[in-house]
Amino acid sequence: MAENIKNAERVIHQINVALKYLEGDILPALGMDNVESEMLLGIKILEAQENERKRIARDIHDGPAQYIANAVMRVDFCKRIIEKNIDEGLKELFELKEILKRALKEVRDIIFDLRPMSLDDLGLNQTIHELVKSITQDHDLIINLKLKPVKDEIEPIIQVAVFRIVQEILNNVKKHSKAKNVEIKLDYGLKYLMLVVNDDGIGFDVEKTLDEVKKRGESFGLLGIMERVKQLQGDIHIESKRGIGTTFKIKLPVNRKVLKDEGEN
């Protein structure tokens, strides 16, 4: 009985927080009323988002992906049974197999997009390498990586943010830039990291595009990049020239302690 009451109170509190959030009054709802709490709120939101993505990714991996893989194996079994006299059936089975293989690839792509498991297992740099490998297989694009080795110098949630930013920038490159070459540089010190991504694409009018983004809510990728940087109290600078290309320069803290220290100064 006591446990049920606690659960009910927890649900009511969550509903109140959600309502306050919709009203634009999230900090008082969470009991936060100082500058430090406001800055750390961005970290908490990112952690919640990434935890949910991780759960969904694991569910898809253990569920539909396994069923599809099993179906591909069953098709091969059926093929051996009917191959002697049912040519049309073999043709249908072959087409079905190809469809299932494409579906399996799409499911794995969704998993990678939601939460690359290699981010936990292999780390930031290798996950970026995997992303680049996937992109260059499907697009006529050369991506050069200059990444300083990362172990535990950068906090995991910051690593996630860096990966998401790289992912969004490369999505923009694929969709809009018409670039042939991209260079990604990652360096860091004791307090901050610097991410620089430049391409040789067609470029764009930065001020005009940002103005349109803010007014119309277009280009969610660009909005997502700027929002992540803002949540982490970072800095972003975009340089672009028509016919020359675009450069993103992004500075982020390497951990939340930097955020706390900066808030106290």
UniProtKB/TrEMBL annotation:
Keywords: 4Fe-4S, Cytoplasm, Iron, Iron-sulfur, Kinase, Metal-binding, Transferase, Two-component regulatory system. One of its GO terms (cellular component) is membrane. It catalyses: ATP + protein L-histidine = ADP + protein N-phospho-L-histidine. Its EC number is 2.7.13.3. GO terms for molecular function: 4 iron, 4 sulfur cluster binding; metal ion binding; phosphorelay sensor kinase activity; protein dimerization activity. It is an enzyme of class 2 (transferase). Its cofactor is [4Fe-4S] cluster. It holds the Pfam family HATPase_c. Residues 95-256 form the Histidine kinase domain. It is found in: Cytoplasm. Its main location: cytoplasm. Member of the two-component regulatory system NreB/NreC involved in the control of dissimilatory nitrate/nitrite reduction in response to oxygen. NreB functions as a direct oxygen sensor histidine kinase which is autophosphorylated, in the absence of oxygen, probably at the conserved histidine residue, and transfers its phosphate group probably to a conserved aspartate residue of NreC. NreB/NreC activates the expression of the nitrate (narGHJI) and nitrite (nir) reductase operons, as well as the putative nitrate transporter gene narT. This is Oxygen sensor histidine kinase NreB. It comes from Caloramator australicus RC3.
